[in-house]
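Q: Protein A?
A:
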Amino acid sequence: MPVTEKDFYELFPDGYHATGDIWMGLPSMGLVPATRVSGLVVTPACDLANCKTETVTYVPIVPINIFLQMPEFLVEVSRFGGESMEKLGMKKPRSANDLLDPALLIQLTELAPAKGKEELQTRCLMALKYLQKEDQRVPAGKRPTEIIREILGSGWIKVKERLVRNSYRSDIYYLPPDYQHADWSAVPLHSIALLRYLITVPTYFLDEAHAADVRDWEHRRSRLLERQLHWCHGCHETTPPLRALRLKDAFLSDLLTKLVSIYVRLGAPDLDHTSLARIEGEL
């Protein structure tokens, strides 16, 4: 049978904490541009089932429009900007940081493009403005997906396909909308789980949230503040976090495989540009 978005989630899971639980309204700890986020629990199942841990670790889930403004995606815009500048006869920047130089915008604006490259110059200008947040990164009335489509052109189609197939980067994971009511939707939009942004909270924080409702949350939150969970003060004034979903095993195992591979890979230092060029010349 064909796999659809409905095959990703188990709704309102019961029982104790489990790997793959998706909570809404969790603290972001300032790691992403939102105070509260949905989060997917990645603490090992045996630790949770046997109460071997006093903490729960989760990865934040952000809507695709937020992801497109984060460093993990801006590298794509930087790559396009650098390659486009080279095609327009300008010096290709050595690094993504060079694209943040405001002088490049002036230089590119004053450049007289070769015939047939006017559109490329316009898209390159858009890329630099997007990177430099010139005139606001996303103009009023436009979504980041619309801006990125204009910048990348047909390349955006390939990027979208790789995002949805989870082959774009090894440290992110695409999650489709859960199509639940807004009041209890943990993944209301096409979203990305950020596997490098691990967040850990005490287990009793989620225990209190799970046992609470709106009527007694204020009392429970006061008890959490007494236990020195000061970050509760600013992000959970009225409603507790809610465990709304659980990622099904077929997708959870894939996500955890990617997560583990990030942290068990030892890697090696890269050669500097001079040594690399010399070695390539000798081959």
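Q: Protein B?
A:
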Amino acid sequence: MDRRVVAGRRRRANRVDLATWAIARDGSNNNLNGLAWDPTGAFDATGTPAMYFVDQSFLYRRDGSGTATSLVAQNDTMDWLVVSATVIFVENNLTTDEIDTVGSGTHALATLATSSAFHVVEEGPLSATSVIAIANTSYAGSAASPIASSTDPNWVWPSASAPQPPHPLAGGYVVLESNRVLDRDELVYIAPGQ
């Protein structure tokens, strides 16, 4: 691996092959917190692939290079999002965290669940009608229904992902489990029926 030493620290060299890839600024929003792809344009019935993203207070649909349409305004900080054919799930940081839904077509915002801490699991099938989230850093579930939990308070779950087909782990969840007391991190696979 190519490495460079800068001010006494090691840093990875730029790994983008500029002969085959280009980097360009697409937009200039500040404090972007999450993005999600709708590969078929099903959510807003556009019929073309679309990207949705959130900054501190707005949910946007990217319409073209450098242009975006604001769909939902919110006074609180919106973070991660997951898009499906009928709804977008948004992690919304209030005094207590919320998982909010944004309806297709109307873009109406509604609260699905609250907790002291939520982290929406990245990705998920486009046909999903619920969202998997990590709540209070120790359990994962469909909004308010736990499906798995950590029984040791020193092991917390800061993030997770849902592998998609054709990946061999599709159908389950890969959770990052972190223990700062032991200074250790592990990946845990949670699968239905296990």
